[in-house]
Design a protein that fits this description.
- By secondary structure, this protein is an alpha/beta fold.
- The chain folds into 2 domains: 3-28 and 86-273, TPP-binding domain (Rossmann fold, 3-Layer(aba) Sandwich); 31-80, no CATH class.
- Helices cover 50% and strands 11% of the residues.
- It is built from 14 helices and 7 strands.
- The chain has a 7-stranded parallel sheet with strand order 3-4-2-1-5-6-7.
- α9 (131-134) links the parallel β3 and β4.
- The longest helix has 22 residues, at 252-273.
- The two termini are 20 Å apart.
- InterPro entries: DHS-like_NAD/FAD-binding_dom, Uncharacterised_Sir2-like.
- Pfam families: SIR2_2.
- This is Sir2 family NAD-dependent protein deacetylase.
Amino acid sequence: MLDDLVAAIRRKQAILFAGAGVSMTVGLPSWSTLVEHIAAELKLDLTDLQGADINHLTLAEYYRFKQGSIGPLRSWMDRNWTIPEEALKSSRVHELICRLDFPIVYTTNFDRNLETAFELHGKDYVKIVNAKDIALVSEGVPQIVKYHGDFDDDGSIVIAETDYLERLSFESPLDIKFRADALGKTILFIGYSMSDLNIRFLLHRLWKTWAGSGYERDRPQSHVFMLRPNPVEQAVLEQWGLQVLTERDCAPEEALEVFLAKLCEAVEKGEESG
């Protein structure tokens, strides 16, 4: 099942799309930690909100409304979501991502963990956060595209409900870049919960673009790695043209590392034999 993905990686025709699950392997706090912090800072009693189905997007929107800016929250996240270099240096997942040498890595993570991992492993890169950064792209230099923003730029952060709703237009400079990058390349999604509406919408729009082109059969195969098998999600994603990959005989907390190690071994073995 990995043959086409391995071949695309060898040809530099594959894009990695990395989510929060990648940073959580080195101890990044979960969204529930963010919810608890917002509640504490705004003196909200979360027990009063039980059953109200309020998530971090809605709470972040409320925070912006009450505080006038997302800046203080962004600063707190930056301080608390910075992983020590030693932890990143010993992270097998980040090492494998560097070894796989994708020409373009998209990430919805705000943190600098991918950039720091590249630096620790001696890999050059260009970081792309906005339209201006697109002009910095150089042939042969890997790109790290901060699809939901970066801690260095408050205005780029996609964290509140309004931010997400505005991104659903799929017309920002980074959306246009993604459509151009993705049309002719294989995509591998890792570290995502498929309950993320923004990512599901992105996958659906990509499928619709190909379906409306009349050339859907020529679309490069793309893949989603899931920590646990889920036949319902698999059926929906496969309908959208995505192949679901899992490590069935592996604990969820180890699955991503095991999968990336197998993928890396297959890619490097093929390069040696070639």
